[in-house]
Specification:
This protein is an alpha+beta fold. It contains 14 helices and ten strands. The chain has a single domain, classed as 2-Layer Sandwich (Creatine Kinase, Chain A, domain 2).
Length: about 400
Amino acid sequence: MLGPEHEYSLVGEDLKVMPISDKIIKDYCGKTVNFIELPKFTFGKEMQLHVMEIKANLPFKTASEFEESMQNAVTALSQIVRKHGANLLGTGMHPLLKLKDTAIWPHYHKKIYREYGKIFDLNQHGWLNIQSFHLNLPFQKEADAIQTHNQLVNLCAYLPAIAASSPIFEGKEGPHIDNRLQFYKINQKEVSSVTGDVIPEYASSLSQYKRDVIEQYSRDLAKKGADKTLLHREWVNSRGIIFRFDRRALEVRVMDEQECIKSDVALACFVRAALRGLIASNAQLLSHDVLVKDFNAIIKNGLNAEVSSPLGKTARHLCQHYFNLAQEHADGDEKKYLWLVKKRIDEGSLSELVRARVLRRAQRSDFHQAIVDVYSTLIKCLIDNQPYL
């Protein structure tokens, strides 16, 4: 079962940021609401007024169903936003956005953002300019949930090597391959237990997890004067994998939003099939310190990052190892998408590809125009559901 959530920027001509999600929703519904629920998918707001979310109403049984339904959602939402002169743009960060260009959702739910704003500085890219592809993997029994969580922890440190798509922000080449995650790591530093090391700690039971993670950051938030709105809430947890007890799922958050639905599906197939292999082989869990060290190296250097894992010397080696495991344990439907992950491992993540193409174009024009040219192609990739290769 696969439960996806996608986040897209609203952009106008030349990638102009359009903070109009509330206007779009009001025009469609006749009133301002948080979500528009259709039979198979839901459109909704995000904290940032220039971002809209698409999520599945129920998890999909197959990758093909995921692709078809979510591409229908992208098509439907694209038609809605075009009435306002906007397009949807994927990737992990808007490449040109300045913080003054957007704003925080000012309607229902605004109390949550107001309470966050009392403790954290929301006027930073780590809050206002991050777009991720969330993948929800349902669980049933507690023992299975714990095993799945811990093997996902083992895997998720290496996912950004193939899932990074945020090479540029504020019109400049960022210092990291995955700039979204670099900002995400520090956006709640005032209460560091909310995010931890992004790579989650291993769990031994659900009660232990609730006590050591959720209750710990709730105590720390309370000491900072947090309102009850934020206390004892599982969704406040900002680790790269979190338990969503409300939907009995594990939510993976370390992947940047990609350029099209097919690419998101490929990553989902890779995660699910590799996880299946890790569980089947009862793979050894690497130390948390090693995972955190490797994760931080990958955020900086992507597939070329040197890693401490005994499974390989670079992130590319690790991703190839997990790809082999995924290929071995994928079902027929999943195998139809894994070629795209293999291509990313061999030729670079979307982040590396976009950065190289922008730098090449910038040799013939100015850097700003090069960004506009490349990201305009990515807008078309989303509409056409064609990977950027």
